[in-house]
Every structure is written in C-alpha cells, then in structure tokens.
Design brief:
heterodimer; A: alpha/beta; seven-stranded mixed beta sheet; two-stranded parallel sheet; 46% helix; B: 428 residues; alpha/beta; globular; pyridoxal phosphate (chain A); EC 2.6.1.1 (chain A); amino-acid biosynthesis (chain A)
C-alpha cells in the first residue's frame, strides 16, 4: 500500500515530448521545428558572443561571490531590465512609479504576477476574476493562471484560421463583453504561436476598449528584439499602453534575446499610479517570492545587468540580437519563395507577414502527423513551426515536404 | 466594490484591513487595498543590519557562513569547478523540467548513500529545485495535491520561520509537536514522543535531518530510532528537511544518518535538500526534492506529476549552480576538497561555540551556557528573551532574530569577546 498508489501518470508536456521523439528518430534527414530556441545556420545552439565575453568577466572577478540576492533580485538587473521594456526615457520611470521583481524566466514572472493578482486584485483572494488568454496561446499560460488559483481562464478570439491573420473584430468583441476588471494576457510582440501581431492602429483600438472597460493589462514579453531586430520597435505596444495611463504588469523573458534559456532570467515589471503603490505592491510580492523560491538565481541576472549597464557590451548585445532576428527573416523569405516556386497549393504570404520565431503554417493535425511520420519533420500539432529550425541546408527538404504533404493529405 | 464584498478568508500573504477610509486617496489605483507587508523576520534582520553605521555591528541573523574575518567564503572546490565548466564552453539550452540529470543523481546519492537499495532499484524520483525553499514549495504542493488522506503537517516547535507560510500557502494545515525544551535548552524527547503518539494516522510530520533550525538541538541516534518506530506505528508521512548535510558534524554520512535510518526502516519519505550552505552556493539556488516510492513504476508516475507542478511555476530550473554542484560531486579530486572544506566550516563553528561559552564564563556570567556547546550546526538558540534581544540589537548593534537565535557563522575570533560581553550585559 503506498501513499502514492493513486497518483496517475500525467500526460507529458507536448513540446518536450516532441523534442524527445525527434532525438530518438534515426532518420538522417530529420528536422526539429518544435521547441522555441534559436539555432544557427548549422542547426546549433548559439551562445551569444557578448554572453561569452561577460562570462569571462564574471569568472575573472574575484570580488564576486555566491551570496544570496535580495528577495526581489539584483537591483541593477531589475532596473535595467525594466528600462529595456519601457524605454530609457519612460515617463513612468521618471515619475518613479515603476517596480520590478527578478524572476525565474518569463514563466516565473508570469507566475509571480498571477499569484499577486489572485491575492490582491479585484478584491482579496478573488479566484473568480476571469483571466483571458489568446486563442491560441502559449499552452503554459493556462496552467500558470489556473495554478495560481484562478478558476476561470478563458480564450479571447485572436487567430483567424481562414484568413490566416488577426481576428480583430473577434478580439475587440471579446474585450467589449468581458466582465469588468477581467485580466487579459497580451503578447507584447511576436505572438506565440501564431507570429501574428496587431498593427499599431489595432493596438490603439485594443487599448481604448481596455481603458474604457477597466480591464487589466498583463503583457507577456518573451521576444523583445527578436521580432523585428529592434528593441524599441518590439516594445511599441507596451510603451503605448504606458502612455495611455494603464497600471499594468509586463512579464519579461531574457531566455531568447540573450540566449540564456537555462539560467532562468526574467523580470516582472510593474507600472502603478505612483511610488507609494509600487512600494506596497513590492512588499507583498516579497511575501510570495519568499514561499516559492526565497530569492532568485544570481548568475543570469548578473550577466544581463553587466551587459545592459556597459555601453560597449549593450551595443554588442543589440547587434547579436539583430543577427538572430535577421537569420529568421531570411529563412521566412526563403521558405515562402520556395513554396511559391514549387506551386504549393494555398497562400503562403503569411510566412513573411508573421513575425518572430514562430510561424503558424496552417497545416492541419493530419498533415502535421504526415510531416512527422513520413518526413521526420517535427512540428507542433497546431501547425506551429520554429523558423530557427530552418537552415540553408534543410530548407529545400522542408519546402518540398510541405508541398508533398499539402498535395497528398487533406 | 469587490473589496467591500469580499468575505473570503485571506491567505497567509498580507492582511485584509477593514479600514477602507484610506482607500479614498488610493482609489484611482488598482492597488489601493494592498497593505504594506511586514518585513521578513529573517531576511529583514540583514536589511536592518545594513543600515546600521556602528563599526562594531554584528550580523547574526541569516544563516550564511562567514570565515574568521567575517567574510563570505567561496569554496575552493567551487572555484575549481567553475574553471572546469568555463573551459567546456557548454551551451545554454533549457534543462529538462526535472533538472540536470548529473546533478539529481548525485544529489540523491549524497543523501541516501551510494549503496542505497532505493537508488539501485530506481524507486526514488529526485528533481532539481530552487534550493531548499523551492524544494519545500514543490513538496508542499505535491502533498497538497496528492496526499488526500490528510491536510495536517506537524512542524517541530519551533521550526524555520518560512516552513509555516510555505505549507499554508500550499493549502495544508499547520500543527506542531513539542521539540525544544526551554528549561534545558535541549531536546524535549518525551514531549515529542507524546505528541507524535497522538498524531492522526497519515498526517505529515516534518523532521529536520540534522542541525535543527533554529535551535541547533538534534535527537541522538537512539532517540531517532525510537522516533522512527513510533512514526511507523502511527503511519505518518515523513517529510525530511536537510539543509545542512555536512555542516552539522562535519561528516556527510553522519549528518545523513537519520534520513538513511528511516529509509532502512521502510519509511517512504519525502526529502528536501539544499546546497546553499554546504557548498556556499546560496545565490545560485541549488536544491533537490526526493520522493521515495514503492517501486520504479510509481516513481515514474510521481515524476510526471512533479513536472506538471514545476512547469507552471518556472518551467525548468537554473543551470549554473546545479552544474557546479554536479561537477564537484562527480569529480573525485573536487569531491575530496569539498569534504575537507565542509569539515573546515563545521569545525570553525564548533570552535566559536567553545569560545563563546568560555568568554561568557570569563565575563562572570552565572548562567549555564552548556547548550551553546551542545547545540549543533550553524544556529544557536541562546535562550535570550525578545526584550533581551532588542537590547542586544539597540545597545550593541548585534543583529539576530527575535527568538534568540544567532548564526554562529557570523561569530569570529575577533568579535566573540564583544558578543559575550553584550550577551552578559543583557542577561545578568
């Protein structure tokens, strides 16, 4: 008799199972278009040159030790990370009404924000506040908010499968009918998984409704710099909402734009009405941090802080980010061109219109299964591909495979 | 307003104030109802210490080891491991949800012993966690979700301050069993046995594996044996917290004796481990959570559920510290150096205990300070009352927690005399 005799086997997280299946596949032509991590044109992980440089600096500095960071994290990391999101000259920063919590990656930042909101937003311990996530969205959004206690996590219309673009009318419609004070999780840029972002004008419309209906703004910013290659361009939506006077959260990840995936570097930026509100919010954030991880890991935060706060390193980082974004853009252009040249049925303009690491190909589950089983090309059941998995060496094979799949499988 | 209508019980985090008069100045913000949270009792001590300008100030709050110059100590084996790792030019790809395999294997081995039958049969699951706190958080939430037989967690009285909010936040009910005897500054063995004998079956009992925090009072092996028997009779679920393996006696295996004994006796324990103190990896957040299961099949099921818990918290754990720990544990030369360094840290603590007791005697104190020497590990439960603690802080700039706990790691040969002087002054 075991205490855990009744514990059921849980379904594995899809994206990791995909990677495992890819690993076990003996086909030499196999391509992994699953997990969202950057790859070079050789299909290899890329430790950013600026990161290697800063690591050497850290290793050589004997004055550094492994002492605990403060509960909320490394101060110079928090402030410089928030500046990246909000802009050097952000009025909110100048008005002293921005706070931040260093967290374990973007996931950790979402988690902290969610836990805080459940306890302190729209009453106390109000689990009934609806939380809206885009349809579709990063699958972990649902779990983060549900595990924080929210009982009502719902989709808002976002992706129009037919026209392969943003369902703006649906999105705005859901904003209009959402109960007041509902929380909306917005992707700051490079929407995961669709790669489809609202235009500036569309964001302005979203903001207008959210302000009028008193909806809570929770940005998820995991790809700043990665989408267009320019940090400021990619932060336009976040900054616009700040100018509109919102109190809001922005969960930032430095996994992709710094390539620091496994060091878990994230930041929850908090914009409030004034400094006093920020102070009290942070004091309660500390309580939540204390029962979850006590204080965050130092290595990654140090690395990012040194980079962001040193002019030459900052410039080099921006350059590294642009390198990654440019490669993705060139793969998009190349894939679309090849599909068009092959005369693959359907329209493929969305490949270059979409932005960031991911592309929602429009392949249906049967076609995805065919790609995996018959061509050893691994992608998510939703039809999402990671553009970083494409290289100049495999892009012909992938293009031909997509063509064959679309022609043979309906 | 939702705030007014809410009559729900508030969780341990923050307090709900009915005095909404203040809301009028804050009602243009979402956060008008957010109360200022009280400072953390333990970490708050360090922050107060930082603000103090006295040249004689002593930080005996947080349990972070200091060398005899009062400086943080980066272990040599850690520096060597870092150099090794740096030369390998590894990538930074995401770890698996359960963490670095090299680390979790050696972490389990360190606790259970290399020849452990549990390891051989693969009936444990060990996941990498965000140090000890992260491990307890995962454990508390795992029990809350899957240990439907009981909501009750029994903590020793007293226990580490953060245990209570961690378990409460996970939805468990906190209870206590007698542990510390203030009249002897030692272990209340009979009180503990008495309380354990009355615990409802299937309750969770938290045991500090060694170097009890905050008292430094550990059961003797014969006492552990009796506790193990009684716990089995009562059919309780054992949750071991081992944050100081190596730090207590200076010997890795001796400090893990209780954990290994319970397992040998057939207890299917859950175990939290931290490498913050024994490897000095505090800020790297290195820890492990282990569930000892019936068999390997069960361990797989439990593992799958632990991953489901971890993913929405932080997806996967940080690499740096785990890589350092794994390198040390798996490289014989470095492992040897580590054992020596842990031994050295424990020895310095023991020496400071002896010097403190001796100095108190020299100051002319008539109190019995034997417990200072008898207690084990980083902390000493001095027996000082809150008013005495307050005086010690205000008049002597000696910072410690209100319960009279001092971190011996903050004591050095140059300040032990001053400390004795201060303690004597407030207790004579």
């Amino acid at each position: 008799m075991s205490l855990f005799g009744e514990v059921p086997q849980a379904i594995p997280v899809a994206v990791f199972k995909l990677s495992n299946d890819f690993k076990d596949d003996p086909n030499p032509m196999k391509v992994n278009l699953g997990v969202g991590a950057y790859r070079t044109d050789e299909g290899q992980p890329w430790v950013l040159p600026v990161v290697k440089k800063v690591e050497k600096i850290i290793v050589a500095d004997n004055s550094l030790n492994h002492e605990y960071l403060p509960i909320l994290g490394l101060p110079e990391f928090r402030s410089s990370a928030s500046k990246i999101a909000l802009g050097e000259d952000s009025p909110a920063i100048q008005e002293n009404r921005v706070g931040a919590v260093q967290c374990l990656g973007g996931t950790g930042a979402l988690k902290m924000g969610a836990e805080f909101l459940r306890r302190w937003y729209n009453g106390n311990d109000n689990m009934k506040t609806p939380v809206y996530v885009s349809a579709p969205t990063w699958e972990n959004h649902n779990s983060v908010f549900a595990n924080a206690g929210f009982e009502d996590v719902r989709p808002y219309k976002y992706w129009d499968a037919e026209k392969r673009g943003l369902d703006l009318a649906g999105f705005l419609g859901d904003l209009e009918t959402a109960p007041k004070h509902s929380i909306f999780v917005l992707h700051a840029c490079a929407h995961n998984p669709t790669g489809t972002d609202p235009t500036h004008v569309e964001w302005m419309q979203v903001a207008e409704v959210m302000k009028r209906r008193k909806l809570f703004v929770f940005f998820d910013s995991a790809y700043q710099g990665f989408a267009s290659g320019c940090l400021d361009k990619d932060a336009w939506a976040v900054r616009y909402f700040v100018t509109q006077g919102f109190e809001m959260f922005c969960a930032q990840s430095f996994s992709k734009n710094f390539g620091l995936y496994n060091e878990r570097v994230g930041n929850l930026t908090i914009v409030a009405r004034d400094a006093d509100n920020v102070r009290r919010v942070l004091s309660q954030m500390e309580k939540i941090v204390r029962v979850t991880w006590s204080n965050p890991p130092s290595q990654g935060a140090r690395l990012v802080a040194i980079t962001l706060n040193t002019a030459e390193l900052f410039a080099e980082w921006k350059d590294n980010v642009k390198t990654m974004a440019d490669r993705v853009l060139s793969m998009r252009a190349s894939l679309q061109a090849k599909l068009q040249a092959l005369g693959t049925p359907g329209t493929w303009g969305h490949i270059t219109q979409q932005i960031g690491m991911f592309s929602f190909t429009g392949l249906n589950p049967k076609q995805v299964e065919y790609m995996i089983k018959e061509r050893s090309i691994y992608l998510m059941a939703s039809g999402r591909i990671n553009m970083c998995g494409l290289t100049t060496k495999n892009i012909d094979y992938v293009a031909k495979s997509i063509h064959e799949t679309v022609v043979n499988v309906q | 307003m939702a705030l007014l209508k809410s009559s729900k019980a508030i969780s341990s985090i923050g307090t709900f104030s009915a005095s909404l008069g203040v809301l009028s100045t804050r009602n243009s913000s979402w956060w008008g109802g957010v109360q200022m949270g009280p400072p953390d009792p333990i970490l708050g001590v360090s922050e107060a210490f930082k603000r103090d300008t006295s040249p004689k100030k002593m930080n005996l709050g947080v349990g972070a080891y200091r060398d005899d110059h009062g400086k943080p100590f980066v272990l040599d084996c850690v520096r060597k491991a870092e150099a090794l790792i740096s030369s390998k030019q590894l990538d930074k790809e995401y770890l698996a949800i359960g963490g670095l395999g090299d680390f979790t294997k050696s972490c389990a081995q360190l606790a259970l012993g290399a020849d452990s039958e549990v390891l051989k049969s693969g009936r444990n699951i060990t996941v990498q966690t965000i140090s000890g706190t992260g491990s307890l958080c995962i454990g508390a939430n795992f029990l809350s979700r899957f240990h439907s037989a009981s909501r009750d967690v029994y903590l020793p009285k007293p226990s580490w301050g953060n245990h209570t909010p961690i378990f409460r936040d996970a939805g468990m009910q906190l209870k206590a069993y007698r542990y510390y005897d203030p009249s002897t500054c030692g272990f209340d063995f009979n009180g503990a046995l008495d309380d354990i004998s009355k615990m409802p079956e299937k309750s969770v009992i938290m045991l500090h594996a060694c170097a009890h925090n905050p008292t430094g009072v550990d059961p003797k092996p014969e006492q552990w044996k009796e506790i193990a028997d009684l716990v089995k009779k009562r059919d309780l679920l054992v949750f071991f917290d081992m944050a100081y393996q190596g730090f207590a006696s200076g010997d890795i295996d001796r400090d893990a004796w209780a954990v290994r004994h319970f397992i040998e006796q057939g207890h299917k324990i859950v175990l939290s481990q931290s490498f913050a103190k024994n490897m000095g990896l505090y800020g790297e957040r290195v820890g492990g959570f282990t569930v000892v299961c019936n068999d390997a099949e069960e361990a797989k099921r439990v593992e799958s559920q632990l991953k489901i818990l971890i993913r929405p918290m932080y997806s996967n754990p940080p690499m740096n510290g785990a890589r350092i720990a794994a390198t040390i544990l798996n490289t014989p030369d470095l492992y040897k150096i580590w054992l020596e360094e842990v031994h050295g840290m424990a020895n310095r603590i023991i020496k400071m205990r002896e010097q403190l007791a001796a100095n108190l005697k020299n100051e002319g104190s008539t109190h019995n300070w034997q417990h200072v020497i008898d207690q084990i590990g980083m902390f000493c439960f001095t027996g000082l009352k809150p008013e005495q603690v307050e005086r010690l802080t205000k008049e002597f700039s000696v910072y410690m927690t209100k319960d009279g706990r001092i971190s011996m790691a903050g004591v050095t040969s140059s300040n032990v005399g001053y400390l004795a002087h201060g303690i004597h002054a407030v207790t004579k």
